[in-house]
């Protein structure tokens, strides 16, 4: 999935990234959906190994525009994976206690321990996205956060964390369609929020802010992947495969147990 | 108290720092003890202002060799200060949960919010002190922590935290005397720990590790102060005065309230 990785130091122009791209999986939608199942099983196996080895920590960051598919990605990619081994942390509007401290405070407390996978549904990146777009802090403040974030993630990586960051890339037409679906479907209508339309008006500002995030914070130790996300099945396959590749690169092993243990017979 | 501040980038040789120094307060021990009381009151006033203004966050880090006087400093400097405004956090041997994460995880969750003073009794510096001396992690790991710590503290400072770090400097003879006192006094004997004698044998290794800490992590945004601490009353005056100077530099003001409010008469 190297093609979707943002090269550290490169300048990202999202117009050059096709949200409909399907280079890696040319199958039909139905075939693509079927292909996810064995990947779920593979992730489940790798998660057990990660837990048993108790050495690495895995942090996955998901960011996207509204309706970009963060919830759907989590549900689909981690379906069938032992829920005890994967922790999903959703970051909403900060509380007063959180606002009283630095913006990394609330995310740091949820980073994975050894043997754990943690998924951030939104993250500290909101502090250079929504916070920037709505001018919730002055530019001097948010502008120094890119470097702070790189340093923070670098420390996590140096202390044993594998970090994968996914930007689920949809275009504005796709968002229109998904918002309309929410309104039309009585079972989805609850997900609609009139504020979404206000945010949608700020699409260019968000795009701009995302381009800066992707350009300034894709690092060797915590790379961003720009996932073509107009097609949900394709998006799921890209995220799942990227995760599997990263976990396989760890060359994990089950801990050694003494050979003699195999001879133990437990009396009933 | 500038004389005790470690100039960022300078190389510290603790032999050149006199733990008996008394340049700033030439009074007698009795007079020195009396002088602390008005400083306590001043800190209490400044703390109230800090709380009311709800803008700055204050983090104080205390480090010292065993018997160096961390507990005594806290008791004496913050006596008479509203306990609701000052939080003392003592870091002991890490738990399994803490060891499973990066070493900054457990300290970050306790950093001050706006309007708060937090005192760290021991801190993340143990992860380049005891951890280094006892080789609890490989050199590659602890050696990259100085920069990680500087970056972490810099982020805190950029996000509005005033950081003051005190190394309470005693010499080896003073430690011998204090340990002996613990053994001799039935009311203090409980504080003695046979492990202290083992640690005492590692005095040169600790001194070395402290010199590296003081040389590498005294920064403009989070300076170290080397406090002459053989005399307890002198140590208290230096810490209290340094804190007062730092708080006064903030030029804090009580929040404006509408002039008309002074005319309100509350009916009984």
Structure description:
Two copies of one chain form a homodimer. With 268 residues, chain A is α/β, with parallel strands linked by helices. Chain A has a single domain (2-249), classed as Rossmann fold (3-Layer(aba) Sandwich). Helix content of chain A is 43%, strand content 12%. Chain A has helices spanning 29-53, 70-77, 96-99, 105-108, 130-133, 139-143, 145-158, 172-184, 195-201, 203-216, 232-248, and strands at residues 57-64, 86-90, 117-121, 161-169, 224-228. In chain A, strands 2-3-1-4-5 form a five-stranded parallel beta sheet, sandwiched between helices. The termini of chain A are far apart. The A-B interface holds A 57, 97, 100-105, 108-109, 111-116, 141, 144, 148, 151-152, 154-156, 158-161 and B 57, 97, 100-105, 108-109, 111-116, 141, 144, 148, 151-152, 154-156, 158-161.
Using CB atoms under 8 Å apart, which protein chain pair has the greatest interface? A-B, 28 and 28 residues
What kind of oligomer do you see?
homodimer
Mind telling me which CATH architecture of chain A this is? 3-Layer(aba) Sandwich
CATH C-level category of chain A: Alpha Beta
Number of domains of chain A: 1
Q: Give the number of DSSP strands of chain A.
A: 5
Distance between the termini of chain A: 51 Å
* CATH H-tier superfamily of chain A: P-loop containing nucleotide triphosphate hydrolases
CATH topology grouping of chain A: Rossmann fold
Major sheet characteristics of chain A: 5 strands, parallel
Number of helices of chain A: 11
Unreliable spans of chain A: none
Q: Helices and strands of chain A: which structural class?
A: alpha/beta
